[in-house]
Amino acid sequence: MPVVRKACPADIRQIVEIYQRILTKEENEGTATGWIRGVYPTEQTALQALKDQELFVMTEGEQVVAAAKINQTQVPEYKDALWSCPDAPPQQVMVLHTLTVDPDCAGKGYGSAFVKFYEEYAFAQGCPFLRMDTNAKNTAARSLYQRLGYREAGIVPCTFEGIPGVQLVCLEKKLTDNSI
What we know:
There is one protein chain. The chain is an alpha+beta fold. It is 28% helix and 32% strand. It contains 4 helices and 7 strands. The chain has helices spanning 12-29, 43-51, 110-124, 139-147, and strands at 3-6, 55-60, 63-71, 93-101, 129-135, 151-160, 163-174. Strands 1-2-3-4-5-7-6 form a 7-stranded mixed beta sheet. Strand 4, helix 3 and strand 5 form a beta-alpha-beta unit. The longest helix has 18 residues, at 12-29. The radius of gyration is 15 Å and the shape is globular.
């Protein structure tokens, strides 16, 4: 049974290895996250999230199978999205950043389970407004988020995390007592 917990320094190596496997798969098979090796995500991405105490991992036994940063920081690009609740109080908004699932573990439901954890965590923190983003190229993530009840609030052209020409898909979901 997978477990989600706050990351620790010992997890960084496995998280970076997941980033590398995703990038290698993209380069070899044409899958499309829109990430660029050496630009985003990098070891520094994970280390900063760890330092900020916002990095979470999903483990199966001793293996990290997924990771993400969870906080209340809305990236500047979000100002251009067409949110259904644009006046949601910032203290009630939780954001999922850089969700990564090990491609060697694809199809086992880890992505869905991690998003469920994110929703439960946000709800417990008093944050019913959920936001996240993905690259428009990342059709697998877009499909997953749609299946999980997320609404696309717009596509924002931008340079994102140092990657030029990104079409950033902003997604949202509002939690209720019945949706958790």
